[in-house]
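Curious: can you check?
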Amino acid sequence: MTTTRHASGYIALALLAILVSGCASMTQDQCRHADWAERGQRDGREGYQLSRIDEHREACAKVGVSPDSARWQWGYAQGLRAYCAPNSAWNAGLANRYYAGSCALHDEDGFLRHYRAGQALQRARQAFSRNQADIEKLEVDLKKADKDEERKRLREHISRLDRERQALRRQLEALELTKPPR
């Protein structure tokens, strides 16, 4: 019993170590060989907040490396400018990526407008897919139906879903037009 308890304790510690190491913003090797301007640019393009440098500082302190804050901030400003652009906002919304509020010093209203438009398109695409799948399932059920009343109910349901699909198709077409020009 004691051996089992010790073994499970070691396993728990090993799992905790793996989880903690997975949370670092950079690996030790990345810290040692970092191009801080490029790292800042990448962090900005990914929409991280300015506090991301603190995460790098903490991760790299373990190997005695201190980030070059000036170079990182220069790169971050470049990357953030690209991230806060309308197309990037639209794509982030379309991918349903989390927005951390990093465009507050840029045109955040514009960013959010395009971000939400991308999210709306993604939701409409999902609704269209669900609708299509529902229609296909009902069509299979219709082929299997052996009573007139059941077939009538299924046809009415398919007809209702088909009208919804037409409305969703129009909505998709309209939302596609919200994509900002390149």
Observations:
- Residues 1-22 have pLDDT under 50 and may be disordered.
- The longest helix spans residues 108-144.
